[in-house]
UniProtKB/TrEMBL annotation:
<dbReference type="GO" id="GO:0030655">
    <property type="term" value="P:beta-lactam antibiotic catabolic process"/>
</dbReference>
<dbReference type="InterPro" id="IPR000871">
    <property type="entry name" value="Beta-lactam_class-A"/>
</dbReference>
<dbReference type="InterPro" id="IPR045155">
    <property type="entry name" value="Beta-lactam_cat"/>
</dbReference>
<feature type="domain" description="Beta-lactamase class A catalytic">
    <location>
        <begin position="42"/>
        <end position="257"/>
    </location>
</feature>
<protein>
    <recommendedName>
        <fullName>Beta-lactamase class A catalytic domain-containing protein</fullName>
    </recommendedName>
</protein>
<keyword id="KW-0732">Signal</keyword>
<dbReference type="GO" id="GO:0046677">
    <property type="term" value="P:response to antibiotic"/>
</dbReference>
<feature type="signal peptide">
    <location>
        <begin position="1"/>
        <end position="17"/>
    </location>
</feature>
<dbReference type="GO" id="GO:0008800">
    <property type="term" value="F:beta-lactamase activity"/>
</dbReference>
<dbReference type="InterPro" id="IPR012338">
    <property type="entry name" value="Beta-lactam/transpept-like"/>
</dbReference>
<dbReference type="Pfam" id="PF13354">
    <property type="entry name" value="Beta-lactamase2"/>
</dbReference>
C-alpha cells in the first residue's frame, strides 16, 4: 500500500497561472547559473509591473528552514484580525520555551515581561527560533497555519514541525516546505494587501523589511532601496525570498536549494554565493542604468 506521503512526493507540482509572459533572456541566464550548482536549486522571479517571469525548477519542493516564519507570521495575524490576540498583548517569557540557534529571546531571563509585537519583530528581524515556535503555538499550531496556506491557494507550502500527522514529511523537509513559485506568491499577496486584510498585510510587510541578515541577496541591492525578505539556512539547504521595491518596478524572487554539497557556514558557501549572484543579475536586469556598485561582491 502506498502511503499518503509517497503519493504527495510523486505528484507533480501544479504551477500557478501566469498573467505575464516568460522572460526568455532572463530564463537563459538563470538556467546557466543553476546548471553549474552542486546540489538541487530552483528559482522563481517575476516583475510585478510587467508580469514577466522566469522559472527554473520553480515548482520543486524545497525545505523552507526559517522561511517558514512567513506562514507563521500570517497565522498570528489571522488570530489578531479575529480578536483572539492583540498586537501589543503582554506576555511572560519562560525559559522552558528556550530553543537554540538564531535569535535573542533564548537569552532572556525567566519571567521576563514581553509582548506579542516583540515576538513578531524578533522572529522576522533576527529569525529568532524561540519566538517563532512560540508564535506558531499562538497561531493555533501548524495545522491551523497549513489551513490558511491552503486557503490562499498554496498547495505545497506547509509547516511540518510540531504538526500532528506530518512527522514523516518532517524527516525529509524539516520545519517547513514550499516551492519558489508558491512562497513568491505569498509574499506578493502580502505586499498587495491580499492576506488576512489590507491592514494586516501592511503590518506584516513592514516587519519583513527590517531584517538583520543582509549579507546574501540583500547585499547586492542599494541600501536606499526597500526590500522585504526572509532567508532560511540549515546544513543541507540555503534559501531566500525577496521582494524588491525597485525604482522602475517592484520584483520578487525566491532561490531555493537542497542536497547541497558545500555545507560550510562561511560567506563563500556555494549556495550563498549563488543567491548573491542571482540577486546581482536581477538588479542589473531590471535596473540596467543603475551605477551603484555593491561593497559585498556577488562572487
Amino acid at each position: 500500500m502506498i502511503s499518503k506521503l509517497a503519493v504527495l512526493l510523486l505528484l507533480p507540482a501544479i504551477a500557478f497561472s501566469q498573467t505575464g509572459k516568460p522572460d526568455r533572456k532572463l530564463q537563459k541566464a538563470l538556467q546557466e547559473i543553476v546548471d553549474g550548482f552542486h546540489g538541487t536549486a530552483g528559482v522563481y522571479v517575476q516583475n510585478l509591473k510587467t508580469g514577466r517571469y522566469a522559472a527554473v525548477n520553480a515548482d520543486t519542493i524545497f525545505p523552507t528552514a526559517s522561511i517558514v516564519k512567513v506562514p507563521i507570521l500570517v497565522g498570528v495575524f489571522d488570530k489578531i484580525e479575529k480578536g483572539e490576540l492583540k498586537y501589543h498583548q503582554p506576555l511572560v517569557y519562560r525559559d522552558s520555551a528556550k530553543y537554540g540557534g538564531s535569535g535573542l529571546m533564548q537569552f532572556f531571563k525567566d519571567s521576563a515581561q514581553t509582548e506579542l509585537s516583540v515576538l513578531l519583530h524578533l522572529m522576522m528581524s533576527y529569525s529568532d527560533n524561540t519566538t517563532s515556535l512560540w508564535n506558531q503555538a499562538l497561531a493555533g499550531g501548524g495545522e491551523q497555519i497549513n489551513r490558511l496556506m491552503e486557503q490562499y491557494g498554496l498547495q505545497h507550502t506547509r509547516v511540518n514541525s510540531r504538526t500532528p500527522g506530518r512527522e514523516e514529511i518532517w524527516k525529509i523537509y524539516g520545519w517547513g516546505m514550499t516551492t519558489p513559485r508558491e512562497m513568491s506568491s505569498l509574499v506578493v499577496k502580502i505586499f498587495r494587501g491580499e492576506v488576512i486584510s489590507p491592514g494586516a498585510s501592511e503590518r506584516m510587510y513592514r516587519l519583513m523589511t527590517k531584517g538583520y541578515y543582509d549579507e546574501t541577496g540583500i547585499s547586492q541591492l542599494p541600501p536606499d532601496v526597500q526590500v522585504a525578505a526572509k532567508s532560511g539556512s540549515v546544513n543541507e539547504s540555503r534559501s531566500e525570498v525577496l521582494l524588491v521595491n525597485a525604482p522602475h518596478g517592484d520584483y520578487v524572487f525566491y532561490v531555493g536549494t537542497k542536497n547541497i554539497k558545500d555545507q560550510r557556514w562561511e560567506e563563500d558557501n556555494e549556495a550563498v554565493v549563488m543567491i548573491r549572484k542571482i540577486s546581482a543579475l536581477l538588479w542589473r536586469h531590471f535596473e540596467p542604468r543603475s551605477k551603484w556598485t555593491p561593497m559585498f561582491k556577488a562572487y
